[in-house]
Amino acid sequence: MPHVNRRWQKSYYYHITSRSNWKEPLFRSDDDFVYFLQLLDEANKKYPFQLVSYVLMKTHFHLLLFSNTQSYSNIMFLEKKKYATFFNKKYNTRGHLFEKRFFAKPASTPRTLLHMSRYIHFNPVEIHSVESPKDYQWSSYPLFIQSSENSLTPPYINFTPLLRSFTGTYHQRKMQYIQWCNTN
After folding, report:
1. How far is 172 from 42, CA to CA, in rounded Å?
2. What domains are there in the chain, each with its CATH number?
3. What positions does the domain Transposase IS200-like occupy (predicted)?
4. pLDDT in tens, 27-50
5. What pLDDT is stored for residue 183 in this prediction?
6. What is the pTM of this model?
7. Is residue 99 within 8 Å of residue 34, measured between CB atoms?
8. Which of 97, 127, 176, 183 has its CA 20 to 30 A from that of 90?
């Protein structure tokens, strides 16, 4: 049965998540996490996009993605196909690595975008992996904490949309986002 095309709109951010088959580890080593992030960089060169937030968990990942030029389906197809090929070769496995295609939900308002980002950043805390999102290395949150207006982050990372709901300097808006996340 063919896949039904997903609805994609240029002006929306999408919360995308995908889980491993049978809740088996998707990332077995730090090198696996690093490779997945390298693939995001490669995918960005082919299909330009921005990530506002991301987290890579042991059995799944979350991305808060925006693209004006390409459907998220193209980006996810490339990312998941290359990662599955890498994983199956590295661990001498066969078959589907991912449970389904992926889940995608649009962020239709700035408030929804903030809530989605907070959910993504606090995912490791919710499952008791760490006490604070700043302590989880496979997330955009530590990058966010360290960021400044002129900091070097991967080219596909753009925190500005998270800060639009707040006022003041970059640093003040960043601190307001952090405070908002910790109180909601």
Report:
1. 33
2. 13-183 (3.30.70.1290)
3. 9-123
4. 999 999 999 999 999 999 999 999
5. 87
6. 0.92
7. no
8. 127
The pairing of beta strand 60-66 with beta strand 50-56: antiparallel
The whole-angstrom separation of Cα 176 and Cα 180 is 6
For the four alpha carbons of 27, 29, 35 and 40, in that order, the dihedral sign comes to: positive
Residue 149 in tokens: 């207006």
Phi and psi torsions of 93, nearest 5°? -120, 170
**Residue whose pair of structure tokens reads 């049965």 in the numeric block:** 1
Q: Which of 140, 145, 143 is nearest to 121 (CA)?
A: 140
| Whole-number Å distance between alpha carbons of 79 and 62 | 13
Residue ranges for the chain with pLDDT beneath 50: 1
Question: Are β-strands 103-107 and 13-19 bridged in parallel, bridged antiparallel, or unpaired?
Answer: antiparallel
- CA-CA distance, 143 to 164, in Å (whole number)? 18
What is the DSSP-derived secondary structure letter of residue 104? E
